[in-house]
Amino acid sequence: MINIFSNSRQYAGKTAIISEGKSYSYSDLHQSAEQFAYTLLADESDLQESRVAFMVQPGFDYVRVQWGIWQAGGIVVPLCLSYPIPSLRYTIENSGANILVVSPEFEDLMNDLASELGCRFIVLGKNEGGKAQDLPEIDDSRGAMILYTSGTTNLPKGVVSTHANLNAQISALIEAWKWTSADSTVCVLPLHHVHGVVNVVSCSLWAGASCEFMPNFSEKGIFDLVTEARINVFMAVPTIYFKLINYWETQTAGVQGELTNALANLRLMISGSAALPVSVMERWQTISTHLLLERYGMTEIGMALSNPYDGPRVAGHVGYPLPGVSVRLSEEGEIQVKGANVFKEYWQKPEATAESFTEDGWFQTGDIAALDELGGYRILGRNSVDIIKSGGYKISALEIEEVLRQYPGIKDCSVVGLPNDEWGELVAAAIVTQGLVDEKALNTWMREQMPAYKTPRKYLVVSELPRNAMGKVTKKDVVNLIQ
After folding, report:
1. pLDDT for residue 153 is more than 50
2. What does the record list as coiled-coil region(s) (predicted)?
């Protein structure tokens, strides 16, 4: 059963989506999704887990296409709107999608590729249409979605989640974050990642809340939504909070006060998808009165850990297991997860799937953590990129980054390990500065803050850090910059 459909039907007349200045009710959404399911099915009775790739602008069309694919029995494969053609080709080919759906603005870009790959090509508003028919019964053990990993070490892998996985992920967040039909939120996140498609869009629609879409992020646009009391729940990545802080600081004292008062009225503000610098968290608390709720998750598991909705939230810590999720640390400190939220498999990669689980069935996240004094989890870093092995020490890059950000003149930074014959890896840092920073003085100060073996041996000043679509720093690119 696809629970998001059955749960949301009770809110038929309520606003589900606000997109491009228009409001759509839940009834509108259900009817449009069913109509699109008819288009997909054509003369078939069930897509039988056929993969349907779609390149659709965030908004009402995105959701009706996604829901229509599910109702027709297909697996959704959302495409990144900013990817170049070779990356799009890889995703479509690898997933074996035989149907490609696009917004009209992507028709020219994707037409030749669809023809080359032999995909049925559907352009929204152009060649839709199908006769009404009985829609298939969808068992929750069926595949529902394939999202692709970032592919920082090799080609991206397709992460297959079933409807049961999504039901577990969404229902856990509904309970933990106390979603209700009285809520309203805005989606500013890419919809080929779990953060946007599950945490924001699916949770809000499951709960009967309203979800507004802002495909082109605007600091003023977000603050307008807040001051007009059009949202009470906000989720974003650290980069967005950094931009909102900068915008707030450019305003007059009177406007700052108005914005702060409006922010205080929000019910919940969450940060995720990348480590939240403590400095950003503290500054945002001063500006908004909110101590951001940090959580931890990844494509393969949805969300696994969260700071509490009610109760103490600790800066730099990601909290406790969500309802229905079991978490443990291996001897090496790796986070391992088990539960109905955990994905089914890597698409057509049985060996990679098997290797990602322990013999007793726990998914190995590759992230290193430690337990805090309250029994919650503190992320130390990704074992492949954030744990630097130098001179026999295991060093957390995230810890060093937090210290660097406290230095006057440093706006942002990324710490990496550079291959070195003598030390194994040398600690190095790319820094974004505001004005001139004296490297010698910085190095002296760093050695006063932490042990010498943790201090960077090399610095590189850059105008900005390389990031992926979710705003997460791509450390492989940082290494290439510094070397």
Report:
1. no
2. none
